[in-house]
Design brief:
This protein is α+β, with helices and mostly antiparallel strands. The protein contains 21 helices and 14 strands. The chain has a 5-stranded antiparallel β-sheet with strand order 2-1-5-4-3, with helices on both faces. A 5-stranded mixed β-sheet has the order 7-9-10-12-11. A hairpin with a 5-residue loop joins strand 4 and strand 5.
């Protein structure tokens, strides 16, 4: 049996021959149903109290769309014209029948009709809009056209209109549900469940209908209500398609019985008998379908609850949890088997009292548990507590309890329900983590001591060696040959390089331990200060710098200056062009490639020597140089590693795109891309920076370019260790 949520009955998409065939089928079904309906017309050849074509037209438009209207109109025209109605009246009746179906579908769709008849809303919409409202269109146009053609006397017009409307309305109530539920069953692609039970119910319904409407026993009225229990059984136990089939079966047997001239209402005129029969079956249809929809909703709810309970049970078992419930008035406590297992008890061994719960609690945590329970009952705070329990075997476990208080209409606490989880492993991990954190703190302190020693104790001998080598070279140069003088100069170079390596290593290690001073920073001002500090180098190397629009971002101003200083210095250093150029700017992350994201991506571009693709993955390694030690002014190779560390500390990333011989572009982000206009809140704002530093710009002291400055080797002025 289907227990999932009701689905919407969707229109079939047909084209070409398939659509033409469908239109032919609709025309044939409408014509056959119309001939059957008009065979029951007794007050007028075109006015029948039983009109199944209404259901055929409604279902066809719902399933195939409004484009099926020509088949409906053609079928209605054929049926009415062959019944003897004038052509003009037949055309008007066909138009009314078509408009009835189209209007009914339009109203149903506007109201959210699903078409599966699995909800009470569907049943009421079908009864109210399709059967009650749209059918008045056909009745009014049909009776009016026959009156205008002189086929219906004026005094009989109201009665004929009533008969027409009842016939169309009951057609939608009795026959349309079966067509719609069969279509829904076909679209689901699954066979309705309980087929054996459904066959038995349908058989019993047919027998009961024969007894009521055909057999002589029905004339006494003693069997009138025999049909009701069977329809109720079908509605409560079976799917809607079976209930709709049972209603159609009852209607068919009742019509047959009435035409035989016997049955419960055999003493009345045939038309009135047919109208009363239609009303009886229509009411039975709406009642049973509404009951079936309510039953289907209940089954869906039960199915969802079972699924929810199963998922909850799996989650509780996977999380080493157990559930509990405390009836406050009686003091009775219920534990799930999972909670009993946490306490080391066998299933059913828990005595079920709050006193036992307190007794199992560690003495040092018992007061805390009772206080949290009292606070929850008083309504001051939700129940949540971590405490220890002492099991029978003497073992101690940590548990976390969470719960809620259920109150009555007056707000008095009635019971508490909740879960308990075994968090012993988490507590052990927290203790282990705390131990490791303390060890890490000691290690960091030792590292700080080492950094101090490296900064002072290691550098001091280097200065002495360099100083003595310089003194010997200056005081005794005339007494030394050229080879000795060259060796002394090499000593000076090597000690200077070692001093730079130690400084870079200390700076790199310090980056991971210091907190960032994050604030709103105008990057245009940052770049202006960096360029001012680097002006002597830029003027010496004749580097042209252009600065585009730069945003205001949240970052550490000092560290961001280091990033720009290193990248600009590299652009100066690794450049063999006569006209050296550096460009600084920002682009949208989606345009920067390499996963720049949606925020602004900053870049520093040069027209230098470029970097081969095979070396791009090595750029940001510590002390990694791609050229000989003294090439391009030498350096330690730490600058880009420091850039990468600073950027990653901000939560960003850095990458390079390069063409050997044409230059390199270094892209980087500072965090998730959040930007703010300078000096206030709001969305992203780009502020235009200067095209280049102006010569009359006052000198600004920039600390950012100093910590990463590499010592210049004798052959050049290296600033901010390079990649190449």
């Amino acid at each position: 049996m289907q227990t999932t949520e009701p689905t919407r009955l969707s229109a079939w998409t047909l084209r070409g021959w398939a659509l033409a065939s469908a239109l032919g089928v609709v025309f044939a079904l409408y014509t056959l149903a119309g001939v059957l309906g008009l065979s029951l017309a007794v007050v007028s050849p075109q006015v029948s109290p039983v009109w199944p074509p209404t259901a055929v037209a409604l279902a066809a438009v719902l399933l195939l769309g409004y484009r099926v209207w020509p088949a409906v109109a053609a079928g209605a025209l054929a049926v009415n014209y062959q019944s003897g109605a004038p052509l003009e009246a037949s055309l008007a009746i066909a138009a009314g029948n078509t408009l009835e179906a189209v209007a009914g579908v339009w109203l149903l769709r506007r109201a959210g009709f699903r078409g599966t008849m699995d909800s009470l809303r569907d049943v009421l919409l079908l009864a109210g809009l399709a059967a009650g409202v749209s059918t008045a269109i056909s009745a009014t146009i049909g009776v009016g056209s026959l009156w205008a053609a002189g086929r219906i006397p004026t005094e009989l017009t109201p009665g004929h209109w009533w008969t027409w409307w009842i016939g169309d309305a009951m057609g939608n109530l009795v026959f349309a549900p079966l067509l719609l539920t069969v279509a829904a069953w076909a679209q689901r692609g699954s066979v309705p469940g309980r087929a054996g039970e459904a066959a038995a119910v349908l058989l019993a319904t047919g027998v009961a209908a024969l007894l009521i409407f055909v057999s002589p026993l029905g004339t006494h009225g003693t069997l009138s209500f025999l049909i009701a229990p069977l329809l109720v059984w079908s509605a409560l136990r079976l799917e809607q398609v079976y209930t709709a089939a049972a209603v159609v079966l009852v209607a068919a047997v009742a019509i047959w019985g009435l035409l035989r001239g016997s049955g419960e209402v055999a003493a009345e005129a045939l038309n009135q008998r047919l109208l009363m029969m239609q009303t009886f079956v229509g009411v039975a249809s709406v009642s049973s379908l509404a009951l079936g929809a309510a039953s289907a909703a209940r089954r869906r709810t039960e199915w969802l609850l079972r699924g929810s309970e199963a998922r909850l049970r799996m989650a509780v078992e996977a999380g080493r949890m157990g559930t509990w419930e405390w009836e406050i008035a009686s003091g009775r406590v219920q534990w799930s088997p999972g909670l009993e297992a946490i306490h080391g008890l066998s299933p059913g061994e828990f005595p079920g009292t709050f006193e036992y719960v307190c007794g199992e609690t560690h003495p040092e945590d018992r007061a805390l548990l009772q206080a949290r329970v009292a606070e929850a009952l008083a309504g001051g705070a939700p129940y949540q507590v971590e405490y220890r329990i002492v099991r029978r075997d003497g073992g101690t476990r940590w548990v976390e309890g969470r719960g809620t208080v259920v109150r009555d209409a007056e707000g008095r606490p009635v019971r508490m329900i909740g879960v308990c989880a075994d968090i012993t492993a988490r507590k052990d991990s927290e203790r282990l983590l705390a131990t490791k954190a303390a060890a890490l703190e000691r290690s960091n302190a030792d590292l700080e001591d080492f950094a101090y020693a490296a900064s002072h104790d290691l550098k001091e001998p280097l200065r002495g060696i360099s100083g003595y080598a310089t003194m010997v070279l200056e005081d005794s140069a005339e007494r030394l040959d050229e080879k000795a003088r060259e060796r002394l100069r090499s000593i000076g170079h090597l000690t200077t390089r070692m001093d730079g390596l130690i400084s870079a290593l200390l700076e790199y290690s310090r980056l991971g331990r210091t907190e960032l001073a994050v604030a709103d920073v105008d990057l245009a001002e940052v770049v202006r200060e960096v360029l001012e500090a680097l002006r002597p180098r830029l003027e010496q190397d004749r580097v042209e710098v252009s600065v585009g629009a730069l945003p205001t971002v949240r970052c550490d101003r000092f560290r961001t200056q280091q990033v720009f200083a290193n990248l600009v210095s590299n652009g100066c250093k690794y450049n063999d062009k006569e006209a050296r150029r550096i460009e600084i700017g920002a682009v949208n992350g989606a345009l920067a490639g390499a996963g720049g994201g949606a925020g602004p991506v900053l870049f520093v571009r040069d027209n230098g020597i470029g970097i081969p693709d095979r070396h791009l993955g090595k750029l940001f390694r510590m002390f990694k140089r791609l050229h000989a030690r003294d090439a391009f002014g030498g350096g330690t190779g730490a600058g880009l590693a420091i850039v990468k560390s600073i950027v990653e500390r901000h939560g960003g990333r850095v990458w390079c795109e390069s063409v050997p011989g044409d230059g390199s572009t270094f892209y980087f982000t500072l965090g998730p891309g959040e930007t703010r206009p300078a000096g206030g809140e709001g969305g992203a704002a780009i502020r235009q920076g200067p095209a280049a530093p102006k010569p009359d710009t006052p000198m600004v002291e920039v600390r950012a370019v100093n910590p990463v400055v590499e010592p210049a080797s004798p052959g050049g002025q290296g600033v901010a260790g390079g990649a190449g």
